[in-house]
Specification:
The complex is a heterodimer of chains A (575) and B (243). Chain A has 575 residues and is α/β, with parallel strands linked by helices. Helix content of chain A is 36%, strand content 18%. Chain A has three domains: 252 residues, FAD/NAD(P)-binding domain (3-Layer(bba) Sandwich), CATH 3.50.50.60; 112 residues, Flavocytochrome C3, Chain A, domain 1 (Alpha-Beta Complex); 104 residues, Methane Monooxygenase Hydroxylase, Chain G, domain 1 (Up-down Bundle), CATH 1.20.58.100. In chain A, the strands form six sheets. A five-stranded parallel β-sheet of chain A has the order 7-3-2-11-18. In chain A, strands 19-17-12-22-23 form a five-stranded mixed β-sheet. Chain A has a four-stranded mixed β-sheet with strand order 1-10-9-8. The radius of gyration of chain A is 23 Å and the shape is globular. Chain B is 32% helix and 14% strand. In chain B, the strands form two sheets. A five-stranded mixed β-sheet of chain B has the order 2-1-5-3-4. In chain B, strands 6-7 form a two-stranded antiparallel ribbon. In chain B, helix 2 runs parallel beside helix 6. Chain B is elongated and about 65 Å long. The relative contact order of chain B is 0.12. The chains are: A alpha/beta (575), B alpha+beta (243). The interface between A and B is large, with 66 and 64 residues.
C-alpha cells in the first residue's frame, strides 16, 4: 500500500501543475500515471496558450474581460461565465509563472513573450513557443516536479509512472485513493490519500478519425464516472478544422494565425462564401471553420473530392521555419509534402472533448475529496465550443486551483478514515476482474470492436448529426458492448501486457460513446460544436442548459443543470 | 495495393523465456504506413502479446524509439516503404529489457535528474516575464526540442561501457540551461558535468547527432560544455555571453 496526503492521477499539464501546487502548500503527493509524464498528450499541443498580456502591438487594449467575452461567445453561451472570467484573470499569472520556471516561449522584438492571433479572439493573445507550446510547457512542469523531488527529504513528490489506474476508491461518498496496476510487473497496489485529483485528459480515441494520442481512450473519464462522479456536456466534441488528411495528425491553428489560407479545389478562399465566417475568414472559431470545410467537401469542391488545401506558401520559407517548424515536419513525414513549396492536405477530425467530469469553478465534484482539472473535467469554461489556446490555459489555471483546494481540504482533516478491510476488499475485486480478463477465451477481438466503434462514432456523432444516424450508431454501440462481453485475450502474462491494458480501456470507450450519443440525441438543437441537420437552430428557450449523465448500476441516466449567464446575454454568433 | 513486408522482431518475456528470440511476421503494408502502424497491426491481428510503448504517433512524446534496420529511430516517424528488404526491430541498448521492445529507462532519467534539469534563476520570481532577446532564445531553438526518447543514449558507445556516463540527452539538457540567458548557475552546472563520467568521457563519435529524431545535436552541445569549462580554466573572468 502506498500512502500519501493527496493522490494525483495523470501527469500531463493539469496533473503536474496540481502536484506542484500541493508541494507548495507543503502537502505530500503521489502522482500516478499510465505513461511517463512527458509522454502525456499535453506534449502534442502546438499553437499556444491564451492570456491578455498585451505584448502584441495590436493587443494593447486587450484585457481579461475581453478574453472572457470572446471565450463565452465562442462557447455559444454554454460556458459558465464567472468560471471563464476566473480563468482569463488568473491565466496571466500562470503564464508569467511558467516563464519564471524556464519555459522557452518565443519572444517579441523587445524580448517579451510573443503572441499570435487565433480563431475567435478579438486580439492576438495566444502566447507560443514556435509550434511546440505544449511540448515546452510539459517539459517545464516536469522539470519543476524533478526540482521538488530533489529538494524534498521526506519524498513529498513521488511520481509513479507506468502505473495504470483501474479503480477509484470511494468510501461513504468520499474519495480515498485509487487501485493501480504496475504495468511493468503486473501487480496491483492500493494508493490511499485524503483527497484525489483527477487529470487524465481527453477521450478522442472513442472516435476513429482523431488527432488524439492512442492513450486518450476515455478510460480516465470513466473510472470516476463508475463511482458516482457525473459527466457533463459530453455531446460537445470539437472537430479541429486542420488535421492532416492522411492520418489526422494536428496542424496547428497557428498556421492560419500566421496567415495561412484554406482553399477548395478551385483555389478559392471559400470561407468568404459563408455568412458566419465571411468576415473573420480563417480566424473564425473552430466549429464554424470545420463545418464550412465539411460543407465544401460535401458539395464536391474538396481537392480530389476529399480534403481541403491549407496553403502556407505565401508566408515564405523564413517564417515557416521560424514559427511553424513542427507542423512542417509532420507534413513531410506523414503526407509527403513540404509546406514551403506545396499546400497541406487537411480535413476536420475529432480533436477535443469539451465535456467531462462535472466539477465547479473550484474543481470540486459531488464526491467529497474528489477534484478534477484539465480536459477530463468540465467546469465549464468551454461550453459547446472551445477557442484554440484555451485548453492549455485551462490545465494550468485549474490544475493550480485543484492543488489549492485539495490542500485546504487535506489540512481540514479530509474525510473519515477508511477501514483497511474495505481497501483490501476493493483490491480483491480488482484482482478478480483482471484474472478473469486474462483467462477470457471468447471469440471476439477487442481491437476489431475498437475500430468498429471508431467508425460508428465518426458516422453518427461527427460534424453534422441527425437523429436517424445517431440512433443507428447508438444501436451499433450497444451491439459492440454486447460483443465486448465475449472478447478473448491473446496474452495472459502479467508483465507489460498491453493486450490487457487496451482491452480494459475499451470498456471505457464504449460507455463514453453511449454517453456522447445519448446526450447528442436528446439535445434537439444546434449549438457550438453540435450541429444537427434536423434541428439547425440554437434553442435558448429549451436548451440553455448543461447535460449531466450519471451511472447507476450499469446504466446511464441523463438530467440537466443550469448555466451561469451572469455577465453576458446570449446573442447570435457571427465572425 | 498492399505489399507484404517481413518483420523480424526481438522477443523476450521474462515470465516464460530463458533467452530472447526473433519472431517473424508478414504485414500487409500500404503507402505511407509507419513502422508503428505495422506494430499495431501485428499486436491487433497476429500476436497480442507483442509489447512496445506508443502514445502520440506523431513524433513528439518520445515513447517509441527503437532499433530499426540498423539505426535508432522513432517507429512512428519511420515509413515502412523507406526501408529496404525485411525489417528487423530490436529494443534500445544499454537498458534492461522489461519485455520485448519495452526497456527500463530508469538509468536514463536518473542521469537527467543528476544535472539539475531545471532553471536556476539568479533573482526571485516576481511580476511579469523576464526579458530574453530573440537571439538569446534562438540559441535554445533545437535543444528544447528534445523529447527524451533515449535514442541518443542507446546509440552512444560510451554509455555501453561506462554505466555512469551521463549520456548525450542529459548533457545536452545541461547545456540548454547553461546557455539560457535567464539561468544564473554556470559554476554549479559545469561542476556537475565536469567529472570523469561527464563531458570529457564523450568520444565525439557523432552517434547521438546521427540518430536524434529532433535534430537536437547532443554532440555540439557537449562540445560547447567542454569549451565553456576549458575557457573558464584559461580565463577566470570568462563569461558565457562571449560565445
Amino acid at each position: 500500500m502506498v500512502t500519501s496526503d493527496v493522490i494525483v492521477v495523470g501527469a500531463g499539464l493539469a496533473g503536474l501543475r496540481a502536484a506542484l501546487e500541493l508541494n507548495r502548500h507543503n502537502v505530500k503527493v503521489a502522482v500516478v500515471t499510465k505513461v511517463h509524464p512527458v509522454r502525456s498528450h499535453s506534449v502534442a499541443a502546438q499553437g499556444g496558450i491564451n492570456a491578455a498580456l498585451r505584448n502584441h502591438p495590436r493587443g494593447q487594449f486587450d484585457s481579461p474581460e475581453l478574453h472572457a467575452f470572446d471565450t463565452i461567445k465562442g462557447s455559444d453561451y454554454l460556458a459558465d461565465q464567472k468560471a471563464v472570467l476566473k480563468m482569463t484573470t488568473e491565466g496571466i499569472d500562470r503564464i508569467y509563472e511558467l516563464e519564471h520556471w524556464g519555459a522557452p516561449f518565443s519572444r517579441t522584438e523587445d524580448g517579451r513573450i510573443a503572441q499570435r492571433p487565433f480563431g475567435g479572439a478579438g486580439f492576438p493573445r495566444t502566447c507560443y513557443a514556435t509550434d511546440k507550446t505544449g511540448h515546452v510547457l510539459l517539459h517545464t512542469l516536469y522539470e519543476q516536479a524533478l526540482k521538488f523531488e530533489a529538494a524534498s527529504e521526506r519524498a513529498d513528490m513521488q511520481i509513479f509512472d507506468e502505473w495504470f489506474v483501474t479503480r477509484l476508491i470511494v468510501h461513504k461518498d468520499t474519495a480515498k485513493g485509487v487501485i493501480a496496476l504496475n504495468i511493468n510487473t503486473g501487480e496491483l497496489e492500493i494508493f490511499t490519500g485524503q483527497a484525489v485529483i483527477w487529470a487524465t485528459g481527453g477521450s478522442g480515441r472513442v472516435f476513429g478519425r482523431t488527432s488524439n494520442a492512442y492513450i486518450n481512450t476515455g478510460w480516465g473519464m470513466c473510472v470516476p464516472f463508475y463511482e458516482g462522479v457525473p459527466l457533463k456536456d459530453m455531446e460537445f466534441i470539437q472537430f479541429h478544422p486542420t488535421e492532416l488528411y492522411t492520418n489526422n495528425v494536428l496542424i496547428t491553428e497557428g498556421a492560419r494565425g500566421e496567415g495561412g489560407f484554406l482553399l477548395n479545389n478551385r483555389q478559392e478562399r471559400f470561407l468568404a462564401n459563408y455568412e458566419d465566417s465571411a468576415k473573420a475568414m480563417e480566424m473564425a472559431p473552430r466549429d464554424i471553420v470545420a463545418r464550412n470545410m465539411q460543407r465544401e467537401i460535401l458539395a464536391g469542391r474538396g481537392v480530389e473530392g476529399k480534403y481541403i488545401h491549407l496553403d502556407l506558401r505565401h508566408l515564405g520559407k523564413k517564417k515557416i521555419l521560424e514559427r511553424l517548424p513542427g507542423i512542417r515536419m509532420h507534413a513531410i513525414h506523414f503526407a509527403g509534402v513540404d509546406p514551403i513549396y506545396q499546400p497541406i492536405p487537411v480535413a476536420p477530425g475529432q480533436h477535443y472533448t469539451m465535456g467531462g467530469l462535472d466539477v465547479n469553478l473550484n474543481t470540486e465534484s459531488k464526491i467529497k475529496g474528489f477534484f478534477a482539472a484539465g480536459e477530463c473535467a468540465c467546469v465549464s469554461v468551454h461550453g459547446s465550443n472551445r477557442l484554440g489556446g484555451n485548453s492549455l490555459l485551462e490545465t494550468v489555471v485549474f490544475g493550480k486551483i485543484a492543488g489549492e483546494y485539495a490542500s485546504a481540504y487535506f489540512k481540514d482533516g479530509g474525510g473519515t478514515d477508511v477501514p483497511v478491510s474495505f481497501l483490501n476488499q476493493i483490491l480483491k475485486e480488482e484482482e478478480d476482474k483482471i484474472t478473469r480478463l486474462l483467462k477470457s477465451k471468447g471469440k471476439e477481438n477487442h481491437s476489431a470492436i475498437k475500430h468498429e466503434l471508431g467508425n460508428a462514432m465518426d458516422t453518427g456523432a461527427g460534424i453534422f448529426r441527425e437523429a436517424r444516424t445517431m440512433n443507428d450508431s447508438l444501436e451499433k454501440v450497444n451491439e459492440l458492448k454486447e460483443r465486448y462481453e465475449h472478447i478473448g485475450l491473446n496474452s495472459n502474462g502479467r508483465i507489460a501486457n498491453f493486450d490487457l491494458l487496451w482491452a480494459i480501456q475499451l470498456k471505457g470507450s464504449l460507455d463514453l460513446a453511449e454517453v456522447i450519443l445519448r446526450g447528442a440525441i436528446n439535445r434537439q438543437e444546434s449549438r457550438g460544436a453540435q450541429f444537427r441537420t434536423d434541428y439547425p437552430m440554437r434553442d435558448d428557450k429549451n436548451w440553455m442548459k448543461h447535460t449531466v449523465a450519471r451511472w447507476k448500476d450499469g446504466t446511464i441516466h441523463l438530467s440537466y443543470s443550469s448555466v451561469d449567464l451572469s455577465l453576458h446575454k446570449a446573442k447570435k454568433r457571427h465572425y | 495495393m498492399a505489399d507484404t513486408k517481413t518483420f523480424n522482431i526481438f522477443r523476450f518475456n521474462p515470465e516464460t523465456d530463458k533467452r530472447h528470440r526473433f519472431d517473424t511476421f508478414k504485414v500487409p503494408c500500404r503507402p505511407g504506413m509507419t513502422v508503428l502502424q505495422a506494430l499495431n497491426y501485428i499486436q491487433e491481428n497476429l500476436d497480442g502479446s507483442l509489447a512496445y510503448r506508443s502514445s502520440c504517433r506523431e513524433g513528439i512524446c518520445g515513447s517509441c524509439a527503437m532499433h530499426i534496420n540498423g539505426k535508432y529511430r522513432l517507429a512512428c516517424e519511420t515509413q515502412v516503404n523507406h526501408l529496404r528488404g525485411s525489417i528487423t526491430i530490436r529494443p534500445m541498448a544499454h537498458m534492461d529489457i522489461i519485455r520485448d521492445l519495452v526497456v527500463d529507462m530508469t538509468p536514463f532519467f536518473e542521469k537527467l535528474k543528476a544535472i539539475k534539469p531545471y532553471l536556476i534563476p539568479g533573482n526571485p520570481d516576481e511580476g511579469a516575464e523576464r526579458i530574453q532577446t530573440q537571439d538569446e532564445r534562438a540559441y535554445l531553438d533545437h535543444i528544447v526540442d528534445c523529447i527524451l526518447c533515449g535514442a541518443c543514449y542507446a546509440s552512444c558507445a560510451v554509455n555501453g561501457f561506462d554505466d555512469e556516463y551521463l549520456g548525450p540527452a542529459a548533457l545536452a539538457k545541461a547545456n540548454r540551461f547553461l546557455m539560457d540567458s535567464r539561468d544564473k548557475a554556470d559554476e554549479q552546472r559545469l561542476a556537475l558535468v565536469c567529472d570523469e563520467h561527464g563531458v570529457f568521457r564523450c568520444h565525439t563519435l557523432f552517434n547521438c547527432q546521427t540518430v536524434c529524431p529532433k535534430n537536437v545535436d547532443p554532440t555540439a552541445n557537449i562540445a560547447n560544455l567542454k569549451r565553456q569549462i576549458i575557457a573558464r580554466q584559461l580565463n577566470p573572468k570568462f563569461s558565457k555571453k562571449g560565445i
